[in-house]
Specification:
- The longest helix is centred in the middle third of the chain and has 25 residues.
- This protein has 1005 residues and is α/β, with parallel strands linked by helices.
- It has 39 helices and 23 strands.
């Protein structure tokens, strides 16, 4: 949320990733029950639990199936994988291979007879038989397709447990009998975030159709009593992101207002669903505009879901109460616990953020839920409470807090919670309504929603799952979360370290920045902006021949002295350098943005990578350079040690002028070598600044020196000089060939060339992959950094069965990309490095006009800024017949598509190997055997499965290729420092004086 004069907005922003212990302490202070209240809650919760458990244990079919196959078992995980992917696979052959893959991953015989349900035991016997058939002869099963038909039908029924109907008309009809029991409904049109404008338009039509139908069925009962609708804002706009907020407010708000006005006219409630944490501030902006809109002032049906697992939840409710009061409105508030918890943890770790936006313990989320519920119940004149929970203790606590009040409702998900709420709704019970959140849609839109529900039902820590485990005592399930949290020695879960502590005591995770938080980004952007004008205001003169000789002489003299420094001293310089990089973040990012043409996000990522290199090589060196005692015969001492080679030449590229440059230099330095650093002629300024920081970090000036000038002139001179004892190169294959020949021609010591070059990088996508994931990862892999990464995706192999859909989605997603000033946070793609690069890309375009089919070309905006460095080039995609059309790597934002038949996977692998390159490869498939098959046959250094192909993390994904793509060892890996060193062994005869004293003094046991 942007900096605001509103103290309540500032409180929300401050709480985004606040200290978890402080947050919980504040919540505990706000929610305390008396001893009598606790006892009443426990009695009611126990009674509810006994009823629920009794009812659930009698359930057959789906519920009994999940009891047998929860996610603590390999079989449960296999079935969830089938549910996630099977129904989207269009071709029978891939379905058969997928089913076989998952069935053979389980031991189904172990589950025989474990269920009280005849149907579950019968299904298990069928799975055991299927496993045997697959294990013996796949063709018997595949030929008649019976297994496929049975399992597909089973998955459809699984989906139907959580989805009320395929159309809103059928849903309303199906709901009528349940409504007579006292239940209400909120309908959710199935679908995840829109990737394209066409997707968003389809979702809009679905919402409009649903509102019209719900309104007709509601009989003018009013927003509270009538059925309502829930909408996802990300479904209505393909770039629903904080950094696109100007476009969102201008383009999405009118669409949203139109929907809300339609709901007002229909006199039904409309609730805006909660989504990922980085979208909350954007949702609040839109909610505020709606609440303040004059056309909506008389309507009381607008609602918002609030996630109690977010640390901001309590503060959001304060703000909503104030917003309602100021605008004389009553808002509907659906309080939920949250559905993206595991993803929020992962994303924060990947980005190296200060903390998590969510609590790391379930009990803490439960405390937050109760605190939020109490606050909502104290403001029922301004908020209509809707408590969404399946937890009996939470229900009992809310009933206790509500007292005699009835002006609120509970909510549960379709297919979950009826055994609990049948004891709450209806006049003969407590006469408190429960609204069922009921998804509506077809099977192809079900999958992501279904997986979240299966996780909720099948997780070993899930309340819904534990209800049915008779070995779990009821008392354990109804424990007061306040007492649980109060008794904790450590509030944050110690098994979930803070993002900065991801690598434990080994090294810190480089600090990132939450670009969805203006509180974090605004100060940094102001600092960066101050440096931008100064970045290109000075030049570095190319080095002369006399200076080259002088530098070499100084380096040769300095190398042995540096090598004799204790390893802790050398490593300490790297650790100090990591601190200086962090300290000078704005200046270094300004260099990357203006000299390198990188976006803010890419600049931040590169800075983090550079910091990671410093810490990683420091840690590795302390281990690798310990003198090792080797076991041998008695009376001898045998030692092995590593030492610097001498003078190392580090030749780095312009596309990663900070991370690759510094990664090379720090590895060579900590290994005990003097370094001559030759940066690209396009990016010398940031290299010079980095060298000055290394000197500031304690590396002597004579130990690391910069050479700026013509690559061919300096390269030729260095390769011919026998004082150069090793070369690190990241560059083109042709440059690597040339350097290799020059080194081989020397009549001196044979020295290593460690080269990381380019790649004809491929992604293989089969028909089991999720199209939305594929498109996201393709755009990131092919177009981030304007495609100017050696790891970037160049050729996308699509199975023909899914190619049309993925290509169509890719076209729509590319239409949403913004090309512009890399300093603008809303920019997706900045410029290519210079005119030469743009001319080379344009030459390829001219060739493709003759040899390929243009799939899509992004439009360059009319108002492109005039940048001091870089040239804008529109990303585009071509379809080609096969990969042999490409005779060399195309280094920029151009992607090529090749379609292949499922039966031709071997031909695809052969074609990839025959390019001779082997840097990165992506695989998108849900079939483990397919992943293993490809992995075991391709000759590629870095393989990425079901994710993007860029952004290798130092020490986690060591980076480097083979064949034409490099020599190894990998950068940021455990073998690099040894390659930059020489090994020396020492053997000492310890018996030379006085015999073998240690042997003679051995005591007998």
């Amino acid at each position: 949320m942007e900096e605001s004069s509103d103290p309540l907005k500032r409180a929300i922003a401050k709480a985004y990733r606040m200290d978890e212990a402080l947050c919980i302490k504040s919540l505990l202070n706000s929610i305390q029950f008396s001893k009598e209240e606790v006892e009443r809650i426990q009695v009611r919760a126990r009674d509810l639990m006994e009823r629920v458990r009794s009812a659930r244990l009698k359930e057959k079919g789906f519920s009994a199936f999940l009891q047998t196959y929860d996610l603590s078992s390999q079989e449960g995980i296999a079935l969830m994988c089938i549910a996630e992917a099977l129904l989207r696979i269009p071709d029978n052959d891939t379905q058969d291979r997928f089913i076989k893959d998952k069935i053979l991953s389980g031991n189904w015989a172990e589950q025989l007879g474990k269920s009280h349900s005849f149907l579950v035991n019968a299904a298990t016997r069928g799975l055991v038989l299927l496993e045997k058939l697959f294990d013996t002869n796949m063709s018997v099963v595949a030929s008649n397709g019976m297994s496929r038909l049975v399992i597909v039908e089973g998955m459809k029924r699984l989906g139907n447990h959580f989805v009320i109907a395929d159309t809103i008309t059928n849903a309303l009809e199906k709901a009528s009998s349940t409504e007579k029991l006292g239940y209400r409904y909120s309908y959710d049109m199935l679908g995840e975030a829109a990737k394209t404008a066409r997707d968003a338009a389809d979702y809009l039509i679905a919402y409009e159709t649903a509102i019209d139908a719900i309104g007709k069925a509601a009989r003018n009962l009013g927003p509270i009593q009538s059925p309502g609708i829930s909408i996802k804002l990300s479904a209505l706009y393909p770039r629903y992101e904080w950094n696109k907020r100007e476009r969102v407010l201008a383009e999405l708000f009118p669409i949203l207002k139109k929907l809300v006005l339609q709901a007002k006219t229909a006199n039904i409630g409309l609730t805006i669903d909660a989504e990922e944490a980085d979208r909350l501030d954007l949702s609040l902006l839109l909610i505020e505009k709606l609440v303040q809109d004059q056309e909506l002032l008389s309507w009381q049906g607008l609602g918002l879901a609030v996630q109690s697992y977010q640390k901001r939840a309590n503060f959001v409710i304060d703000w909503l109460i104030d917003l309602a009061r100021k605008n004389k409105r009553r808002l509907m508030i659906r309080l939920v616990k949250g559905a993206y918890w595991d993803s929020e943890i992962k994303w924060s770790q990947e980005k190296g953020l200060s903390s998590y936006p969510v609590f790391t313990r379930k009990s803490s989320t439960d405390v937050s839920y109760l605190a939020c519920a109490k606050k909502i119940l104290t403001a029922t004149d301004l908020l209509y409470p809707q408590f969404a929970t399946h937890n009996a203790h939470t229900v009992a606590a809310i009933l206790e807090m509500a007292g005699d009040r009835k002006d609120f409702e509970f909510q549960c998900l379709q297919g979950m919670g009826r055994s609990l709420y049948d004891n709450i709704v209806g006049v003969e019970k407590l006469n408190i309504p429960c609204r069922i959140y009921a998804p509506v849609g077809k099977q192809e839109h079900l999958l992501a929603y279904l997986v979240r529900r299966l996780l909720e039902n099948g997780s070993s820590s899930s309340f819904v799952n534990l209800i049915t485990h008779q070995d779990t005592p009821i008392e354990a399930l109804i424990r007061d979360p306040i007492s649980i949290v109060s008794e904790l020695k450590e509030i944050p879960n110690p098994k979930i370290p803070l993002p900065i502590d991801l690598f434990g005591s080994e090294r810190p995770n480089a600090k990132g920045l939450d670009l969805s938080s203006s509180t974090e980004t605004d100060p940094l952007l102001v600092d960066i902006q101050g440096f931008l004008p100064r970045v290109l205001n000075h030049a570095i003169q190319p080095i002369s021949a006399e200076e080259i000789e002088e530098i070499l002489a100084v380096a040769q003299k300095a190398a042995p002295l540096w090598d004799r420094k204790p390893i802790d001293e050398r490593a300490s310089c790297l650790e100090k350098m990591a601190g200086l990089l962090e300290k000078n973040k704005p200046e270094l990012m300004a260099f990357l943005i203006r000299e390198g043409g990188k976006t803010v996000q890419d600049s931040l990522s590169e800075l983090r990578e550079a910091i990671d290199y410093c810490w990683y090589y420091s840690v590795r060196s302390k281990e690798d350079f310990k003198e090792k005692v080797l076991t041998g015969v008695t009376g001898e001492q045998n030692l092995l040690s590593l030492h610097g080679r001498g003078v190392i030449a580090c030749i780095s590229p312009w596309n990663f002028p900070l991370a690759i440059f510094l990664g090379q230099v720090t590895a060579a330095l900590v290994a005990g070598n003097a370094v001559i650093a030759k940066p690209s002629s396009q990016t010398p300024l940031i290299a010079a600044r980095v060298i000055s920081l290394l000197h500031e970090a304690g590396v002597p000036k004579e130990v690391v020196q910069l050479m700026v000038g013509s690559g061919s002139v300096i390269g030729d001179r260095l390769m011919q000089d026998k004082r150069i004892q090793g070369v690190l190169l990241t560059g083109s294959t042709s440059t690597a060939w040339q350097l290799n020949q020059q080194l081989a021609a020397r009549r001196s010591a044979i020295v290593p060339l460690i080269a990381e070059t380019g790649g004809q990088n491929v992604m293989i996508v089969d028909s089991s992959a999720l199209a939305e994931e594929v498109v996201t990862d393709v755009i990131t892999s092919a177009f981030n950094s304007a495609g100017q990464r050696c790891s970037a995706l160049r050729v996308l192999f699509l199975q023909t069965d899914v190619a049309p859909r993925i290509i169509s989605m890719l076209q729509g997603a590319m239409a949403e990309l913004k090309i512009g000033d890399p300093f603008d946070l809303s920019t997706d793609i900045g410029p290519v490095i210079d005119e030469k690069a743009a001319s080379s890309l344009q030459a390829h375009v001219e060739r493709m006009k003759q040899e390929a089919k243009l799939v899509y070309e992004c439009r360059l905006p009319d108002n492109l800024p005039q940048l001091p460095r870089g040239v804008f080039f529109a990303p585009r995609v071509y379809e080609i017949q096969d990969i042999t059309v490409l005779t060399e790597e195309v280094f920029g934002p151009i992607l090529h598509i090749v379609q292949y038949k499922a039966s031709d996977l071997d031909k695809v692998i052969k074609a990839v190997n025959e390019t001779g390159f082997g840097l990165t490869l992506g695989i998108h498939s849900r079939i483990t055997s397919t992943m293993d098959y490809i992995r075991s046959r391709v000759r590629v250094g870095n393989i990425y499965v079901n994710r993007n192909m860029i952004g290798a993390v130092v020490g986690v994904q060591p980076f480097g290729g083979e064949g034409l793509s490099g020599t190894g060892p990998k950068a940021g890996g455990p073998h690099m420092l040894a390659r930059l060193s020489v090994e020396r062994s020492l053997s000492i005869n310890t018996t030379v004086a006085g015999g073998n004293a240690s042997l003679m003094s051995l005591k007998e046991e």
